[in-house]
Design a protein that fits this description.
It is a single chain. The protein is an alpha/beta fold. It has one domain: Rossmann fold, CATH 3.40.50. 34% of the residues lie in helices and 22% in strands. Strands 1, 2, 3, 4, 5, 6 and 7 form a seven-stranded mixed β-sheet that branches. It is globular. It starts with 10 loop residues before the first strand and ends with a strand.
Length: 177
C-alpha cells in the first residue's frame, strides 16, 4: 500500500486563541454548514463551540441545554434529551450550526439527523513534563466500567463504539490547569 493510499490523519494541535479563527476560515473555504464539536465532559467543547459559532455568525447548540428533565433508568445520554427540540433546531438552522456535546453522533443518530459535518474533537490533557502530554480522559476510557456513574459509563461506551477522534478533521488539545 503506497503512501498516497493511506487515509489522511487528523490534525492535532494545541488549543490556542487563534485556533477558532483558523478553523472558521477552513470551514468557509470548504463550504461546510455543520460543525460537530466532540469530547469528554469538561474538555472545553462548549466554550470552543460557542466561540467558533460567534466567529462564523452561526447558531450554537449545546446538547446539555436540551435536557428533557425526565428521570429515566437508562445508560444512554440521548434518552435524557429532548430530541424533538434538537431536530427542530437543526432544521431551522440549515445555513450553519455548530453543535457540541458528549455522545454527539449517537444523539444525532437517535434524532434522525444524518448530515455531513466538519468534526472537531477537544481533548483535555495535562503536561507532566515539557515534552509530554497526558490524555486523562483517554485513560479513563480504557478502564473497566466498575461502579462508575451512569453518565461516565455512557461516555466511555460511546468513545469505545464510535471513536469520535479517529476521523476528526481537528483534534484540539486543551492543557488543563
Amino acid at each position: 500500500m503506497g503512501r498516497s493510499s493511506l487515509p489522511e490523519r487528523p490534525r492535532v494541535q494545541l488549543l490556542a486563541p487563534e485556533t477558532g479563527a483558523q478553523i472558521a476560515d477552513e470551514v468557509r473555504r470548504d463550504g461546510v454548514t455543520r460543525i460537530h464539536v466532540e469530547g469528554f465532559s469538561g474538555a472545553g467543547k462548549s466554550s470552543f463551540a460557542g466561540k467558533l459559532a460567534f466567529l462564523l455568525g452561526w447558531r450554537h447548540i449545546d446538547l446539555d441545554g436540551l435536557s428533557s428533565g425526565v428521570e429515566l433508568e437508562s445508560d444512554y445520554y440521548a434518552d435524557f434529551l429532548d430530541l424533538g427540540n434538537l431536530a427542530r433546531l437543526l432544521d431551522e438552522n440549515r445555513a450553519g450550526v455548530v453543535i457540541d456535546g458528549i455522545c454527539l453522533r449517537e444523539v444525532l443518530e437517535r434524532a434522525g439527523e444524518n448530515v455531513a459535518a466538519h468534526v472537531v474533537y477537544v481533548a483535555r490533557v495535562s503536561a507532566p513534563s515539557n515534552d509530554m502530554l497526558m490524555w486523562h480522559d483517554g485513560l479513563d476510557a480504557e478502564q473497566p466500567y466498575g461502579d462508575l456513574p451512569w453518565l461516565s459509563r455512557a461516555v466511555i461506551r460511546y468513545h469505545r463504539n464510535f471513536r469520535p477522534y479517529a476521523d476528526a478533521q481537528h483534534i484540539l488539545l486543551r492543557i488543563a490547569d
